[in-house]
Amino acid sequence: MPRNTSIKSVLIIGSGPIVIGQACEFDYSGSQASLSLKEEGIEVSIINSNPATIMTDKVVADNVYLLPLTCESIEEILQKHNIDAVLPTMGGQTALNLCIEASNLGLWEKYNVKVIGVDVAAIEKTENREEFRQLMVDIGVGVATSKIANSFLEGKEAAQEIGYPLVIRPSYTLAGTGGGFVHRKEDFDAALNRGLHASPTHEVLVEQAVLGWKEFELELLRDTNDNVIIICTIENFDPMGIHTGDSITVAPGMTLSDKCYQDMRNQAILMMRSIGTFAGGCNVQFSVNPENEEIIAIEINPRVSRSSALASKATGYPIAKIAAKLAIGYNLDELQNQITKTTSAYFEPTLDYVIVKIPRFNFDKFKGANKELGLQMKAVGEVMAIGRTFIEALQKACQSLETGRAGLGADGRQWRNLDEIMDSLEHPSGDRLFHIKDAFELGVPLESIRKATRIDKWFLVQIQELVHLEQELRRYQLNNIPRDFFMTLKQKGYSDVQIAWLLGNVTEDQVYDRRKELGINRVYKMVDTCAAEFPAQTPYYYSTFEEENESISSDKKKIIVLGSGPNRIGQGIEFDYSCVHGLLAAKECGYEAIMVNCNPETVSTDFNMADKLYFEPVFWEHVREIIELEKPEGVIVQLGGQTALKMAERLEQLGVKIIGTSFENMDLAEDRGRFSDLLKELEIPYPRYGVATSAEEALQVANEVGYPVLVRPSYVLGGQGMSIVINDEDLEKAVVNLLKNLPGNHILIDHFLDRAEEAESDSICDGEDVHIIGMMEHIEPAGIHSGDSSAVLPPFGLSQAVQDKMEEYSIKLAKALNVRGLLNIQFAVKGENVYVIEANPRASRTVPFIAKAYDVPYINIATKVMLGVNKLKDFTIERKLKGYAIKEPVFSFSKFPEVDKQLGPEMKSTGEAIRFIKDLQDPYFRELYNQKSMFLNAQ
Q: What sequence ranges are listed for the domain ATP-grasp (predicted)?
């Protein structure tokens, strides 16, 4: 049937700040759903407290409410707008829980609001572990043996009845919070207590553990006619026992028999139909016994899930966009296939390629954390790669991770200790994939690796083949590698860096030049969802090594925007927000906007956001060949964080124009020693400092500048490796550790300004004028990373003289660095003295916060300035903030209860929220102010 015309206004509930287990994939889903509803002429309101996302931007919705995700906020919106329906399926578990709470309070009934996209009763059925288990039994779907427990005694009785090993699954929690495996009776009491306390209903499921079974996910859509389609089947590389968010995943499924696949499809459709009459998206997880292909259901999520973004990018099928239209009454056969533009959305995508997702971990930020993976998700982000084969996609994904790997091994970072490797295989952490390869290189038999990891043999054979290829390669020199064998290496995903390392005494550029001589060139294939059965209209590409290139370069003026890669602490969704606005601004200026990124969770990798999307690693070899094909006017590196910035020097060497601030001036700001020399020249105060390349030099510098000192490496993001030390012994340890992890880096030793306040400014410079976007005062003192500090906009306690100095120094530095575009400056304030700590001529994590607070599209303005299309004087900038905006960092320490939660120079927060106050008498602000006074007065 056609859409429900009675729905003229929809409220979408967002997921709030980024936390481990609920990240920017919901920003992508919510943004896509909002734009989909706006296409239908529906007024869209969004509630979300996350200022870093594109979802909370005026380009996405008609009305954006940056409010806490509470029923009070919901009612405030319902009183202001005549909302017809609420869509809670795009904001993860947070949105669903809030929808249920509002329903229980009678809010939807009171304001005559219809819940669409899901049945509230369906949520109850799927989240309540006992109801879900009983429903599966009733419809004939297999489940693991289990019992519900609402008390400690009930849990003990369930464990005795089922036997070990066990899984404890709390009800109504996200990303496995509070859950875990129990292998021994002695560990059960503590695990049961954790689970009961984690569940908001004090309820857990005590379940048989199916360790070693295979795990699969299916993404489904259903319409009001009860038509159901399977969008994507995703197979976990890792077996049951590792949270799917922490597992390497592959699509389509690689090791399923057709019979098992058809059984799984039928069961998934039956499950979706059994939980309610809603139309929309759904995610189902299964476990399969590798011995006999017995299938059991793990869970069903009647909403857009973490995997929906991955499935959308993997198939080119915009799940959230179609789900939103189904929620307002459309049927699948009434909607257009977004890729072909000629067929209907009532089809199941067919993949003629393979995608691999690898999670990104940040254990280095959580010193002492238990790195072993289990039921509680610990990854902070993920990458996705597309290849013609599994192994090509796997190597490309490894190159995308931003961990310094050039592929799956063959890069000088292999482990050689057999005992450590085997321990890693049995106790998986984020590096287990690499250690599987290390084990094969040491000659460990495939069957021994399979027993240790329980990973399907098919995957292991693929990795083992790489070892054989590398042994063959070592027989040659660069000038006599047969062309066919060279082509095979590239088709297996080997980077030029890996080949150079394997050959020895050869550079990456020499390998690149040699394969070009042999005519071995990267070509680009279109992601078309239908294996070329129908012509595709969407310019969405991935690279491989074949003969035919499907990406035809136009003769338009082009700009390439380099993305930020996987989310991690210190470089999160705020940089994707910046990239999206950069794309929109470039298009507005008449350029063909081209995006290069590998993060499936983001809006920048939506196939209709850029004029052309390359879903590729932000890795030099890939970027270089895209540039050679497209021949852009220039490349924007200012918006993609450190990932994009680190490409600047090589772009400069290649003669590619960097849009905005030059590499030379960006490098000057990044090089802490040279930057301090510039401050001295400009007569801008800065802490006493020195630069060291060894522990001996560091000790000498520290004694000259005086303890305490801040120790930090050059060219890092998110405070990586920073520490405050108070004596020679601690300094020596810190420097030796830094040089071990970052060899060849220059170490900056700053005198640390104890009990100083910290503040920062963001500005735009066009080469002539400087516009201060905003100045913020931090609550926490200097010494705590700015990303971990609450910040107030505008400053509330800094004297006018101090603010004038901050503005003066910002203008001086913008002009001295010849900034074209954005500049962020960190200040330390002691009394009336203002010191500059650092300057970053790029998009910062605070620009989206300021843009939302003042309601000004600052990234859009900055991009047009970078492109040279506009000067600052061309814009009329009106700030709309009345009162103050507060940026609140959000942490995910609950995932790592064993780590030290004390904050310091190295960033630990995973996200942020925004809060508005009218005046400084606000109770929330008074609490923060007292906290600041306590910090500054501490002895």
A: 133-328, 676-867
The residue behind tokens 């109801």 is 131
Structure tokens at 151: 């008390």
Which amino acid, 139?
Answer: I
* CA atoms in the 13 A half-sphere facing the CB of 718: 19
Number of H helices and E strands in the chain, helices first, is: 31, 33
Give every CB contact of residue 154 below 8 A, 6+ residues apart in sequence. Answer: 147, 148
Domains of the chain: 9-116 (3.40.50.20), 145-208 (3.30.1490.20), 214-349 (3.30.470.20), 544-656 (3.40.50.20), 688-751 (3.30.1490.20), 757-931 (3.30.470.20)
CA separation, residue 170 to residues 177, 193, 211, 376, 583 (Å): 8, 10, 18, 11, 42
What do you get for the CA distance between the two ends of the chain, in Å?
70
- Integer CA distances (angstroms), 359 to 310, 372, 391, 432, 884, in order: 12, 14, 17, 12, 37
R_g over Cα of the chain: 27
Task: Please give the structure tokens belonging to residue 444.
Answer: 């460990």
State whether residue 264 is helix, strand or coil: helix
Distance separating alpha carbons of residues 179 and 205, to the nearest angstrom? 9
Cα–Cα distance, 654 to 657 (Å, whole number): 9
Most distant CA pair in the chain, distance: 78
User: Which of 157, 158, 179, 160 shows the shortest CA–CA distance to 168?
Assistant: 179
pLDDT along the chain (939 residues), means of 10: 86 93 87 94 96 92 96 97 95 90 95 92 80 91 86 80 82 68 79 82 82 94 94 95 93 94 96 90 94 93 86 91 94 83 84 96 87 90 97 98 95 94 95 97 97 97 98 96 98 98 96 97 89 68 96 96 94 94 97 97 91 97 98 97 92 96 93 86 91 85 87 67 83 81 74 89 97 96 90 96 98 97 96 93 95 96 97 94 95 86 88 95 90 66
Q: Look-up: residue for tokens 């007292």?
A: 930
User: What is the rounded distance in angstroms from the CA atom of residue 371 to the CA atom of residue 360?
Assistant: 13
The Cα 310–Cα 201 span in angstroms is 31
